[in-house]
Amino acid sequence: MIKLYMDVSTNVMYIALSKDNTLLDFSVRHGKRDHAKYLVDRIHLILEKNKLRLEDVNEIIVGEGPGSYTGIRIAVTVGKTLAYAKKIDLYRVSSLIFMSSGFEGLTCVIHDARRGFVFASIYKDGDVFLNSKYILLEELEKHAHYKYANLITLDEETYKVELSKIDLHRKLVVDVHLFEPNYSRLTEAEENAS
Asked: Which of 5, 56, 66, 99 would staple 184 via disulfide (CB 3.0–4.6 Å)?
């Protein structure tokens, strides 16, 4: 069983390949708002390096957000397109959980969403105590599990990925045409229009 994992919700682009639940290879790229230029090429390179073709992939697991509007849109679009074109099962998972899956114990992961807001999730292993949410930091601090959790602030230096934990949280996308990224908030243009 070959699985392709990808997340582009932050300034870190993370792509991994596993075979029979063992990590084969991964690729990490740091950038700002330019992952769209590199994602498909990086997928091709990691497959080629491991002497695999897209036809060998059985599952694609995509970080659905929340996070960078453009980043999550790119990852979801690429995942949907590859899954549909090659008839590969597609799974979605919170990008917050994806990029912090390597940390142990009760974890509160946040990603700055500006103006006092964060994207946040609280989880431990397969249990989720706060689904990925756009929330004021001061409201998050009132959550019952917050003070007991390891606080992880996602950025270019602070992320850790464990594929087996991602697999615990993934959900099958039944209809790829209906799969939309988890934006969790209005875009700036939508806010300005209202």
From this structure: 66
